[in-house]
Amino acid sequence: MKHGRWRFLVGALVPALVLHVVFVLSPYAQAFYLSLTDWTGVAGEAHFVGAGNYARLGGDSLFLDAVRNNAVMLVVVPLVTIGIGLFLASMMHLGGRGGRRGIAGSGAYQIVYFFPQLLSLVVIAVLWGFVYNPNTGLLNGALRGLGLDGLTRSWLASPSLALIAVMAVLIWSSVGFYVVLFSAAIDSIPRELFEAALLDGAGRWATFRRVTLPLVRDSVQVAFVYLGIAALDAFAVVQVMTVGPGGPDGATEVIGLSLYRNAFQYGKFGYASAMGVALFFATLTLAVLALRSGRKERLELA
């Protein structure tokens, strides 16, 4: 019986492990190896260059612009998205009498907020490209209709505004999902805690700060990791929306776009693989720090 159990476990696990090695670990290993070569995409022409590709990254001004832009997005996109998501979710649940769900039709609001999730990110980028059009776009048209002609801009052609416009699209497309996520987390909080806070005379802000936020911290942590990964990518939105793409003057350049351009336009697959490895470790570092931070806070509370 014991041997039969082990045969069953091996038969169940080995195929899954083989598939994982072939389709997950093997591509990672190949990318790490290619990042140490000058491969141009043609079979048999890879020469080992060691850490040369990584040394080039430090002197590549366009790549450094991409790192700077991704760093800005890594700070702004998660913080703003989580802030808006928490605010909307809290207002739907804690905005009325009784300290609990006080807004009629909150389920309908969640559906409306979640709607952008039904659209592909490429479709969203195309739609917002029309919105930002300086001549026929909805944004400038609305400003002109309100008599604010002086505020109209070429939103995606201005180096000082292009990155903000891109981040606004990422936030708009993401916030609905996190409203639903945080709403579910708030729903799981026992009603008695809100009633106790109400009896103690706590206002809405105090209830949110002392009751809601600590108990949805795990959801906020997960949201930060996922939004951080999205901010470190942002390839699709930048590729579709911006001039160049990545312009103007590298104002919206991101690491994913630099990687794509070097690999598929310039044929520098080895150099592009080095960018991919750098992005991999940046993403891994972000996830580990976020998860360890949350674990440390839970231990301190315990």
UniProtKB/TrEMBL annotation:
Name the Gene Ontology biological process terms.
transmembrane transport
Q: Topologically, how does it sit relative to the membrane?
A: Multi-pass membrane protein
* Pfam families found in the cross-reference section: BPD_transp_1
Q: Does the keyword Transmembrane apply?
A: yes
Q: Does the keyword Transmembrane apply?
A: yes
Spans traversing the lipid bilayer: 71-90, 111-131, 161-181, 219-241, 269-291
- For the ABC transmembrane type-1 domain, which residue ranges apply? 67-290
**Entries under InterPro entries matching the protein:** ABC_transporter_permease, MetI-like, MetI-like_sf
Q: Where found in the cell?
A: Cell membrane
List the top taxonomic levels of the source.
Bacteria, Bacillati, Actinomycetota, Actinomycetes, Micromonosporales
Instruction: Return the protein name.
Output: ABC transporter permease
Q: Which family does it belong to?
A: Belongs to the binding-protein-dependent transport system permease family.
The record's keywords, sorted A to Z, are:
Cell membrane, Membrane, Transmembrane, Transmembrane helix, Transport
- What is a single cellular component term in the Gene Ontology annotation? plasma membrane
